[in-house]
Design a protein that fits this description.
By secondary structure, the chain is an alpha+beta fold. The protein folds into three domains: 59-175, Serine Threonine Protein Phosphatase 5, Tetratricopeptide repeat (Alpha Horseshoe), CATH 1.25.40; 179-310, no CATH class; 312-438, no CATH class. It contains eight helices and 25 strands. The protein has helices at residues 10-21, 70-82, 85-98, 103-115, 119-132, 134-137, 148-151, 154-175; strands at 178-182, 185-190, 195-198, 206-211, 217-223, 232-238, 243-249, 256-262, 265-271, 276-281, 284-287, 299-303, 306-310, 317-318, 326-327, 329-332, 337-340, 345-353, 359-365, 377-383, 389-395, 400-405, 408-413, 416-421, 428-430. Strands 11-10-9-8-12-13 form a six-stranded antiparallel sheet, with no helix packed on it. A hairpin with a 4-residue loop joins β6 and β7.
Length: 469
């Protein structure tokens, strides 16, 4: 028992009372514990997933459909159609054992493990697929139903954070990349990290494309398949969003004109006689106002499998252009310097200013006789202030140029595509690339562009049901 006794001071009395309140009936000094007190909240474990390099180290690494694991992967697709997820897992693991770089097998394996509730096991194949082709599977991994239960776990929350961080890195890579046509599809090559990012997935059907003036979007022209092989379709690569719209059929085999306009905004698609214009925007083709005319600026002309980019440099370069956009000399407006190409005609449609407008790159036609083996074109860079001319490359089958930086130029020629350093650094060969966004101009006297080889099966044929549309 605790008793309150008379104390000589008020402070002492208070101390005794507090001691008494702490006393239990047994005389113990331990505090009483309430039966209904809530249990301590568990400490939530924070999971973080390691960063992986985005894209692949070489264009050839995307060729898993021609490698040893693809036949086994197709049997996994058959099991997927039956909903036999255990077999899907076994077949995908077999495909990856034969070909560790088969990204479609990795994605399908992750989806199958998601169906089976094996959330920790799916992280490795999911990371492999998404890092290799972020544009296809990155954002899709945050939406597909097969991974819904996984996304609700702490590891799934970490995965969302990983994808959001990788998306910023992916968009930054696209912004500094050189866009090329390799194997009939568009790719972005990041020179800073020497990585390839796939932009279109048509199985080799892309003929070429046209970029907007700010290069944030690219309209690409592709052939159809099977009975519709001669028909054309136009899709859009949205570099600023890291998103690609599949080709939308235009309803005929051409001729076709692609331009970019502001009223209304979008890529203008024209065809027929008289020409009928439609605007491709928000993944739909919409008619333009009556009597609409081709908007000003660059435009792409498609006849059969041949493409020609028309983009004379109005207002900055002056010349007496002929009907093919050729001139014997040009005058640079900022300095009034006159430039001519030795022994050739300057192709005005190839002219491209460097980002700071300090240099002008262009292609000159050197031979239009179409003599077998004759050098037909040369690539030059002219200094805008002095008019000094530097020759960079010659080719038999034509050239195309595009800036990859203020002092670096991408050149498509007989040996493929390379990035040339104007300050003397070693050139970078983009093995597998054959063209820039638009194909190389051919001599006026040459035959039409030969038909491309038969395309590979469409990627849609092998697309897992749990994959992105």
């Amino acid at each position: 028992m605790c008793y309150l006794r008379e104390m000589p001071s008020a402070r002492a009395a208070l101390l005794v009372c507090l001691s008494a309140l702490a006393c239990g009936k047994s005389g113990s000094t331990a505090p009483a514990v309430r039966d209904d007190a809530p249990a301590p909240a568990p400490v939530k474990q924070v999971v973080e997933l390691a960063e992986r390099p985005l894209g692949l180290a070489a264009h050839a690494d995307f060729g898993w459909r021609q490698r040893g694991g693809h036949a086994v992967y197709r049997t996994a697709r058959e099991a997927e159609a039956r909903g036999d997820w255990d077999t899907v897992v076994a077949r995908c693991r077999d495909a990856l054992a034969r070909d560790p770089g088969h990204l479609e097998a990795a994605w399908l394996l992750a989806a199958a493990l998601g169906h089976l509730g094996k959330h920790e096991e799916l992280v490795a194949p999911l990371a492999l697929a998404v890092a290799g082709d972020f544009g296809k599977w990155g954002m899709a991994s945050l939406d597909v139903p097969a991974l819904a239960a996984f996304r609700a776990t702490s590891t799934g929350e970490a995965w969302r954070r990983r994808v959001e961080a990788d998306r910023e890195a992916y968009l930054a890579a696209l912004a500094r990349s050189t866009i090329v046509n390799a194997g009939g599809d568009l790719f972005a090559f990041d020179p800073q990290l020497a990585r390839w990012h796939r932009l279109t997935r048509t199985g080799g059907l892309v003929l070429g494309g046209l970029a907007t003036p700010d290069t944030r979007e690219i309209a690409y022209v592709a052939r159809g398949q099977g009975a519709h092989q001669k028909e054309l379709g136009v899709g859009v690569v949205e570099l600023a969003r890291g998103h690609t719209i599949r080709p939308i059929a235009v309803g005929h085999a051409g001729p076709l004109i692609v331009a970019h306009g502001d009223k209304p905004v979008g890529f203008w698609i024209g065809g027929g006689k008289p020409i009928r214009w439609r605007v491709l925007a928000d993944a739909r083709l919409r008619p333009t106002p009556a009597k609409a005319k081709r908007p000003p600026g660059a435009w792409l002309e498609i006849k059969g499998t041949s493409l020609r980019r028309n983009a004379l440099p109005r207002g900055t370069v002056f010349a007496d252009w002929d009907e093919h956009g050729l001139a014997s000399a040009i005058r640079i407006g900022s300095s009034n310097r006159v430039v001519s190409a030795p022994g050739g005609l300057i192709d005005g449609n190839s002219a491209a200013w460097s980002p700071t407008k300090a240099q002008l790159a262009f292609v000159a036609r050197l031979d239009d006789t179409c003599t077998p083996g004759a050098i037909a074109a040369a690539a030059y860079v002219a200094d805008a202030a002095t008019g000094k001319l530097v020759e960079l490359e010659r080719a038999v089958k034509g050239l195309a140029v595009a800036w990859a930086g203020d002092r670096k130029l991408a050149i498509a020629g007989d040996q493929g595509v390379s990035i040339v350093d104007l300050d003397g650094g070693a050139p970078i060969a983009l093995t597998g690339a054959t063209n820039l966004i638009a194909p190389r101009p051919r001599p006026v006297c040459s035959d039409p562009e030969p038909s491309p080889p038969a395309p590979a099966p469409s990627e849609a044929d092998d697309q897992p049901m749990d994959g992105p549309p």
